[in-house]
């Protein structure tokens, strides 16, 4: 029974490492995107507090958020490569 348990643990270990690699990369990406969107929100709030009109500030906020999205989409290939490299190291 103990041998079966050790076998299960050995088989599960690579999967757990793979899951940790993917989870860490996705969390890092999400944190960066969240910080960018929070910065856009802060800028919009500051603009409103300075007397900016709501439609103009809304347009600026939308543009800022679109820029965040575009910038982070460009990061996806590098993030995917980093995950692939990390997963490949598990198999070796």
TrEMBL record:
Species: Hirundo rustica rustica
Protein's UniProt name: Protein FAM136A
Pfam family, one: DUF842
Taxonomic classification: Eukaryota, Metazoa, Chordata, Craniata, Vertebrata
Family: Belongs to the FAM136 family.
GO CC annotation: cytoplasm
InterPro entries the record matches: DUF842_euk
Signal peptide: none
Transmembrane segments: none
């Amino acid at each position: 029974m103990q041998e079966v348990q050790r076998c299960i643990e050995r088989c599960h270990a690579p999967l757990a490492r793979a899951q940790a690699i993917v989870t860490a990369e996705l969390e890092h990406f999400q944190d960066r995107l969240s910080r960018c969107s929070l910065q856009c929100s802060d800028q919009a709030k500051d603009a409103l507090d300075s007397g900016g009109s709501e439609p103009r500030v809304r347009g600026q906020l939308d543009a800022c958020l679109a820029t965040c999205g575009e910038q982070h989409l460009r990061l996806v290939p590098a993030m995917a490569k980093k995950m692939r490299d990390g997963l490949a190291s598990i198999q070796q």
